Amino acid sequence: MARKLLMLQHSLIAFSFLALFLAAVPLASAATEVEDEREFTYMPDGENGPNRWGEIHPDWHSCNSGKLQSPIDMLDERVDVVSHLGRLNRSYKAANATLVNRGHDMMMRWEGGAGSIRVNGTEYTLEQCHWHTPSEHTINGKRYAMEAHMVHESADGKIVVVGILYTIGRPDSFLQSIQHHLEDVAGTKEDETTVGVVDPRDIKIGSRKYYRYIGSLTIPPCTENVTWSIVKKVRTVSREQLRLLRVAVHDDSNSNARPLQPKFGRKVNLFRPEEGKDD
Ligand SMILES: *[C@@H]1O[C@H](CO)[C@@H](O)[C@H](O)[C@H]1NC(C)=O
Ligand SMILES: *[C@@H]1O[C@H](CO)[C@@H](O)[C@H](O)[C@H]1NC(C)=O
Ligand SMILES: *[C@@H]1O[C@H](CO)[C@@H](O)[C@H](O)[C@H]1NC(C)=O
Ligand SMILES: *[C@@H]1O[C@H](CO)[C@@H](O)[C@H](O)[C@H]1NC(C)=O
Q1: Quick one: which atom of ligand 4 is closest to the CA of 223?
Q2: Which residue's CA is the nearest one to ligand 1's atom 12?
Q3: Which atom of ligand 1 is nearest to 123's Cα?
Q4: Residue whose C-alpha is closest to residue 231's, from 249, 250, 206
Q5: Helix, strand or coil for residue 65?
Q6: Residue 234 belongs to some domain of the structure
Q7: Ligand nearest to the CA of 94
Q8: Which residue has a Cα nearest atom 4 of ligand 4?
Q9: Where would you find the membrane-spanning parts of this chain (predicted)?
Q10: Which residues lie with the beta carbon below 6 Å from any ligand 1 atom?
């Protein structure tokens, strides 16, 4: 009897270790954005819509209970203008890329990263960029036609996202350069297509001013402590390019912008270079 109990105890211990190990696996990848599109939607009142993301999976709870969620509005009269944050120090390089239709968006992923950005002494590798239509962040309450997110990650898993806003106008030259690849994955035929070498420096920013605040990923698992830099200058995109990106949204909501999230007293800084060094 005692022996049997001991064996039972041993197998329980072994089982607990296995359970711990299995539980640790999803944690290790919590920083990565979800790629299975059909698990969540952008339908405001949908069963898996933005107000419910936090209930879909235990490790998505931040989506509902987090206090540092994105996107937010950037209200010019409430931001602190600073010059100490420093310019966006980007040292990007060309790398082979794959375009992925994630169902909820189009994503360009660089194999092995495409250089890096240095923020406050830490190096973050550029891993992917993707597009939201309309924009997720708003400036003084105004929502724009599109927002690009350039997602960077440090060796220890910290995330920096650079956001670029676009209004309807002249075509964006970067999207134009990958247009036929977008067309390849816009239909239902392929989910992924190899693009070849893509230089992220072709994604133009055109301004040194940017808003800085601490937020989260805007799709599940809504991981927090993401350092956001939203470029102040609004660029342009054509209607045709927007249409091409929208095709990727399969859930009929015709949008892949998460609603604005409460700020909970968070501060937003606006970085502006010192006088005389302006853009
Ligand atoms: C940019 O980063 C490089 C290293 O990656 C560093 O040597 C340089 O001082 C940084 N420049 C600024 C303006 O922060
Ligand atoms: C891109 O991939 C091709 C084929 O695998 C390879 O020959 C080339 O060196 C790669 N280029 C870069 C910049 O990584
Ligand atoms: C930069 O890093 C230092 C030390 O890691 C930290 O004390 C400081 O708050 C950071 N500054 C910003 C603007 O993130
Ligand atoms: C976010 O950063 C703060 C301060 O660095 C830290 O106390 C907190 O645990 C972090 N939260 C997460 C979810 O990483």
Answers
A1: 13
A2: 89
A3: 5
A4: 206
A5: helix
A6: yes
A7: 2
A8: 225
A9: none
A10: 86-87, 89, 91, 118
- Per DSSP, the residues of 36-63 read -GGG----TTSTTSTTTHHHHSGGGTHH
Predicted TM-score (pTM) of the model is 0.83
Residues designated catalytic: 104
Does 8 fall in a domain? no
12: in domain: no
Rounded Cα distance, 94 and 96, in Å: 7
What ranges in the chain are assigned the alpha helix state H?
A: 2-28, 53-56, 62-65, 173-177, 179-186, 239-246
Domain containing 128 equals 31-38+64-271
The number of folded domains in the chain is 1
d(CA 163, CA 218): 12
How confident is the model over 191-226, as pLDDT tens digits?
A: 889 999 999 999 998 888 899 999 999 999 999 999
In a domain, 22, yes or no: no
Q: Which atom of ligand 1 is nearest to the CA of 91?
A: 5
Ligand 2, atom 8: closest residue by C-alpha: 96
Q: Tell me the pLDDT tens digit for each residue of 14-49.
A: 444 444 444 443 333 444 565 555 689 998 888 899
188: pLDDT confidence band, cut at 50, 70 and 90? low
